[in-house]
Design brief:
By secondary structure, this protein is an alpha+beta fold. It folds into two domains: about 80 residues, OB fold (Dihydrolipoamide Acetyltransferase, E2P) (Beta Barrel); about 170 residues, de novo design (two linked rop proteins). Helices cover about 40% and strands about 20% of the residues. It has a five-stranded mixed β-barrel with strand order 1-2-3-5-4. Strand 1 and strand 2 form a beta hairpin. The termini are far apart.
C-alpha cells in the first residue's frame, strides 16, 4: 500500500513486547512490506480487551494498523499462528528470543521491504516448534539471515588470496568475513581457527534447504565449535553482546 494511506493491513511477527502506559502494549513487529515498526496495542493488558491473546510474543498476527504521529496504533489484531510449542517450552522460547533479537538488531526502522527476513523468521519459528535440535535451526537461521542483510560469510575461497579452500583446517577472519588459508595467516592478526569438519558443516548449511539438513546428526563438539564461530562473527558485526545468548547459556547449565 502507499505510504500516504492512513491505515493498512499486514501480517506481522511480534519480536518484542513491553508494557506501555497503564494498560497498553508496545510491540516491535516485522512485516513483509512495511518493514520493522513499533506499534501500540491500546488496552491489550486488560483481560476484557479484544486484543488480549492476539498480541503474544513470537506470534504471527494479522493486523490493521493506523498511522500515528509518534507511534502507529493496532486497531485490529487476529492471531494467525501462536507457535504454542515455543510458548510452552523454556528452551524453545529461549531460541525464539535469540532469532527474534537477531532480526531486530540486523534491521532498521524505515526499511520498507523485509520480505526475506519476515519469511525466514516465520519459517524458523515453525522449525523451532517442531524440532529437538534447536542449535541446528539457529545455525541455519544465522547463515540465511546474514545472506539476507548483506553479511554472507565467504566459506569457499580465501578472503585474502581468493584461492579455493582445500580440505584441511583453516582460519576465519571476523573482520574480513570469511575463511583464510594457513599460508595467508600472516595478513591478519585477528584470526580464529576453524576445523575441517566445522567448515564442511557451515558450507552445507549455507547451500542447503532446511529439509535437507533435518536429517543431519551433528556431534556435540562440532555443534560447539560452529556456535562459537557464528556467535563471534555476529558479535563482531553488531558490536554488542546479545542478551538472548546469555539466556540460552543459563538454561543449558
Amino acid at each position: 500500500m502507499a505510504r500516504s494511506q492512513r491505515t493498512f493491513r499486514t501480517q506481522a511477527l511480534i519480536i518484542r513486547r513491553r508494557d506501555f502506559a497503564e494498560a497498553d502494549r508496545l510491540l516491535t513487529i516485522i512485516t513483509p512490506t512495511h518493514g520493522k515498526l513499533d506499534v501500540i496495542a491500546k488496552g491489550a493488558r486488560k483481560p476484557t480487551s479484544t486484543k488480549t491473546g492476539h498480541v503474544e510474543l513470537f506470534a504471527l498476527v494479522d493486523m490493521l494498523i493506523s498511522r500515528g504521529r509518534n507511534f502507529h496504533l493496532v486497531t485490529q489484531a487476529e492471531l494467525v499462528e501462536p507457535y504454542l510449542n515455543i510458548r510452552e517450552d523454556l528452551q524453545r522460547s529461549a531460541y525464539a528470543s535469540y532469532v527474534a533479537e537477531l532480526a531486530d538488531r540486523f534491521t532498521l526502522q524505515g526499511e520498507d521491504d523485509l520480505t526475506d527476513v519476515f519469511n525466514l523468521l516465520m519459517y524458523t519459528l515453525s522449525y523451532l516448534s517442531d524440532t529437538d535440535d534447536l542449535r541446528k535451526v539457529a545455525r541455519f537461521y544465522e547463515l540465511r539471515l546474514l545472506d539476507a542483510v548483506g553479511f554472507r560469510p565467504e566459506l569457499n575461497e580465501c578472503v585474502f588470496t581468493h584461492e579455493p579452500i582445500q580440505p584441511q583446517d583453516q582460519f576465519f577472519s571476523y573482520a574480513e568475513g570469511g575463511v583464510v588459508v594457513p599460508s595467508a595467516a600472516q595478513y591478519s592478526h585477528s584470526l580464529v581457527p576453524i576445523s575441517l569438519n566445522t567448515l564442511k558443516l557451515l558450507r552445507y548449511l549455507q547451500r542447503s534447504e532446511y529439509q535437507q539438513i533435518q536429517v543431519l546428526r551433528i556431534p556435540p563438539e562440532t555443534h560447539m565449535e560452529v556456535e562459537r564461530l557464528m556467535l563471534g562473527y555476529i558479535t563482531f558485526l553488531l558490536e554488542r553482546r546479545l542478551q538472548s545468548v546469555d539466556f540460552i547459556r543459563r538454561i543449558r547449565t
